[in-house]
Design brief:
Number of helices: 7
CATH architecture of the largest domain: 3-Layer(aba) Sandwich
Shape: elongated
Distance between the termini: 132 Å
Number of strands: 27
Number of domains: 3
Structural class: alpha+beta
Largest sheet: 5 strands, mixed
CATH class of the largest domain: Alpha Beta
Radius of gyration: 44 Å
CATH topology of the largest domain: Collagenase (Catalytic Domain)
Oligomer: single chain
Length: about 475
């Protein structure tokens, strides 16, 4: 019995002191995964907020920019201002090095020629840490006007030599032998520039008011002053051309031989039309279904005689006999016999490219059909001119296009008619080729100002988009 008491006493004492043994012994390791700090040490109590603070490694960045000015320098050079700055994440001082096209350069102003240039910068901090290279491509394009000048001759396109292009009466350049040139000018920064091309005695000078949207590709079409007819009835004869005569109004008509007109609200400015068919010969067909009488085959043949005579006089195969189906499908001239009137014209006369024209054949003043009466044979050709070119009327030179001129009208096309008809056709062809609308209007103004001493007219250039 005494041994059992001793056991119970010893057990009770052990239970009493157990908590004190635990409290004074080794700390209990954490339960679960170990959390470490960024330096690899164990986070106290798995709490990263108690980790020591370690600063991030230093990094350096740099920015570079360049601006261009053309003031105070001569083409093709430009003044370039370079600026650059560097930043260190640790607040250290950063030194920036600049290169232009791979060669060292300084921050500030330098001069560079027109073209593309690579401007780069690298920053280095006081601790030796470097940035990545930062680069900018600088495209330098001088303001100015790109000019192309071509002229028409009786045999086609021609590039005169010895020309100068002058912008706003100040900046000028000699036109290259291929008719091209670039006029570097601060006037190129404006919305409109006055461009004069002159210097050849063979061609008309031109005067144009060029809008900024055409500065990159200003194409001017002009003409030789003297037109020597190469083929046809008047082969070898020379016609001295005059745009002033061609555009001179013949009262009471509002236009001259070549049309120009004014619209309300445009401050008296003139709009000019240079037009023609896209392909030659122009198809011509008699539309009997639209006529109110018929002709015998013999009499209708006299109409085709007039057409063939016109080709011979023009020295050019301008017209060809066709049928109504072909004309309706691809365009041409419709011929209608009408007992009440004689007339000629085109659909959409202010457009650059004609599709359809109409000639109405009726009686002359004697009551006889104009194609049958030799006295009025020229009337049929007169109307054919209306339907094939933007011809109105004129009294400025002997012409089959005369009306109300108080003199006898020629019964056939004259050398002047041949020259002006082919001039219009060829100029329109070059307008189409170069997608330009700078042609006879600017040629007219060049003649007025530089050859005749007249004032410049206001001109509106419409197109080349969608005309």
């Amino acid at each position: 019995m005494s041994r059992n008491w001793r056991f119970v006493t010893t057990f009770a004492i052990a239970l009493a002191i157990a908590p004190f043994i635990t409290a004074c012994g080794t700390e209990t390791p954490p339960v679960g995964p170990v959390v470490r700090c960024s330096d690899g040490s164990v986070a106290p109590d798995n709490d990263v907020s108690r980790c020591p603070i370690i600063p991030p490694p230093e990094s350096v960045s740099v920015t570079v920019s360049a601006s261009t000015s053309f003031v105070g320098v001569a083409y093709p050079m430009s003044k370039v201002t370079i600026s650059a700055s560097g930043q260190s994440t640790n607040g250290k001082t950063v030194t920036v090095s600049i290169t232009v096209n791979g060669s060292p350069s300084a921050v500030g102003s330098i001069t560079l020629p027109e073209g593309n240039h690579n401007v780069c910068a690298v920053g280095t901090s006081s601790t030796g840490v470097k940035s990545n290279e930062s680069c900018q491509t600088l495209a330098i394009t001088w303001p100015g006007i790109h000019v192309r000048f071509v002229a028409v001759t009786p045999t086609g396109e021609y590039v005169p030599q010895g020309l100068w292009a002058v912008v706003d009466g100040a900046d000028s350049v000699r036109v290259n032998s291929d008719g091209t040139g670039f006029v570097p000018t601060l006037s190129g920064l404006k919305d409109t520039a006055k461009v004069v091309v002159r210097g050849s005695n063979e061609v008309f000078p031109t005067l144009a008011r060029v809008e900024k949207k055409y500065f990159g590709n200003y194409v001017q079409v002009s003409s030789v002053k003297s037109w020597t007819i190469p083929t046809g009835t008047y082969a070898g004869q020379t016609v001295v051309l005059s745009m002033e005569k061609a555009y001179k109004e013949t009262l009471p008509q509002p236009t001259g031989l070549f049309p120009r007109w004014q619209k309300p609200g445009e401050n008296g400015a003139y709009r000019y039309t240079v037009s023609g068919y896209t392909t030659y010969p122009i198809k011509v067909a008699v539309f009997r279904s639209r006529s109110n009488f018929t002709l015998s085959a013999v009499d209708e043949g006299k109409w085709w005689n007039r057409v063939n005579e016109t080709n011979q006089t023009l020295g050019f195969n301008g017209f060809v006999q066709s049928d109504t189906t072909s004309v309706n499908a691809s365009g041409g001239i419709r011929v209608v016999f009408d007992s009440s009137r004689t007339s000629g014209g085109v659909d959409n006369p202010t457009k650059g490219d004609y599709v359809f024209g109409t000639v109405t054949i009726g009686p002359g003043t004697s009551g006889t059909l104009v194609i049958l009466d030799p006295q009025y044979g020229g009337v049929a050709k007169h109307e054919l001119m209306h339907a094939s070119a933007p011809f109105a009327h004129t009294c400025q030179y002997p012409s089959v296009m005369e009306q109300n001129c108080l003199r006898n009208v020629p019964n056939d096309l004259t050398p002047g008619d041949v020259a002006y008809w082919n001039l219009m056709r060829l100029v329109r062809g070059l307008e189409r080729k170069y997608n330009t609308r700078f042609s006879l209007a600017q040629t007219h103004q060049g003649e007025r100002v530089f050859l005749l001493g007249l004032l410049e007219d206001k001109v509106i250039v419409f197109g080349p988009e969608g005309w």
